[in-house]
TrEMBL record:
Keywords: NAD. PANTHER family: TIR DOMAIN-CONTAINING PROTEIN, TMV RESISTANCE PROTEIN N-LIKE. InterPro entries: TIR_dom (IPR000157), Toll_tir_struct_dom_sf (IPR035897). Pfam families: TIR. One of its GO terms (biological process) is signal transduction. SUPFAM superfamilies: Toll/Interleukin receptor TIR domain. Residues 8-65 form the TIR domain. This is Resistance protein.
């Protein structure tokens, strides 16, 4: 059986909600991961509860380990 090899664009997809974590904990976590060479995705758009996930965001999720 042939093995399937996936190429991931990101090692980590950071999921969060709210400005308080975007510029605090989550922002600091992203910086620390990137500084260590971890390919990290953090969305810049602010989704509100009930908003639909955009195709580009779905792509980032699927492109993450």
């Amino acid at each position: 059986m042939a093995s399937i090899i996936h190429e991931f664009a990101y090692d980590v997809f950071l999921s969060f909600r709210g400005e308080d974590t975007r510029y605090g904990f989550t922002g600091n976590l992203k910086k620390a991961l990137v500084d260590k060479g971890v390919r990290t995705f953090m969305d810049d758009a602010e989704l509100q509860k009930g908003d639909e996930i955009t195709p580009s965001l779905l792509n980032a999720i699927e492109s993450s380990k």
